[in-house]
Design goal:
By secondary structure, the chain is mainly β. It is built from 3 helices and 16 strands. The strands form 6 sheets. It has a 4-stranded antiparallel beta sheet with strand order 4-9-8-5, with no helix packed on it. A 4-stranded antiparallel beta sheet has the order 11-16-15-12. A hairpin with a 2-residue loop joins strand 8 and strand 9. The longest helix has 16 residues. The protein is globular, with a radius of gyration of 18 Å. The two termini are about 30 Å apart.
Length: about 190
């Protein structure tokens, strides 16, 4: 357990950090709220708002939508670069037109094939409300899928700032990291 202890004879004094207590209280409740999603207007930097799996090794750019659809694993496997689809009803949701990539359990819909310019793109992406730690962070930089981190971080974890590096077999960018099972959402700034 995080914190510190001081022993004086047979008396032991323990300190538990407020952050640890908050996580122990919030994590069980987070799984109840993960199902609720909100459409959040994001300022996405297309050059980094992707990882090698979800953008088909950077084949696509301009993230438009993320749709959770774990039941598609049976048809498409763990990963599938489906290509362009005109959009429509899919997985009890409305999918946008674009280049579709399935990386279990999500579909990632991209605006264009190829790299984008350095200009910023505003996108409306449906994300779990907790992905931005309830609005604490802005400008989504990257989404990394890492279901295995559930064992360490639970269903929800506002990890805070990390300078980036190798994570879960991918390269994570610098920013504010939030884990909402099964994805890490990396944000450029904090409010």
């Amino acid at each position: 357990m995080p914190g510190c202890s001081v022993c004086l004879g047979k008396v032991r004094f323990s300190y538990v950090s407020p952050q640890y207590m908050f996580q122990r209280l919030v994590t069980p409740l987070a799984s109840l709220t993960i199902a609720a999603t909100a459409t959040i207007a994001l300022d996405v930097a297309p050059a980094t708002a992707q990882d090698s799996t979800t953008s088909a090794n950077s084949r696509y750019s301009g993230l438009v939508q993320v749709m959770t659809c774990p039941e598609d694993r049976g048809t498409y496997g763990e990963y599938n670069d489906y290509g362009y689809w005109g959009g429509g009803a899919w997985c009890d949701q409305t999918g946008e037109a674009g280049y579709w990539v399935y990386s279990y359990p999500n579909w990632y819909v991209w605006e264009r094939e190829g790299h984008s310019t350095n200009q910023k793109i505003s996108a409306n992406i449906s994300l779990p409300e907790l992905a931005s730690a309830n609005g604490s962070y802005y400008r989504l930089e990257q989404i990394l899928t890492c279901a295995a981190d559930r064992n360490t971080y639970g269903d929800y974890n506002d990890y805070g700032y990390w300078s980036g590096g190798s994570w879960c077999g991918q390269t994570g960018v610098e920013g504010y990291w939030v884990y909402v099972y099964p994805n890490w959402y990396v944000w450029q700034g904090a409010r």
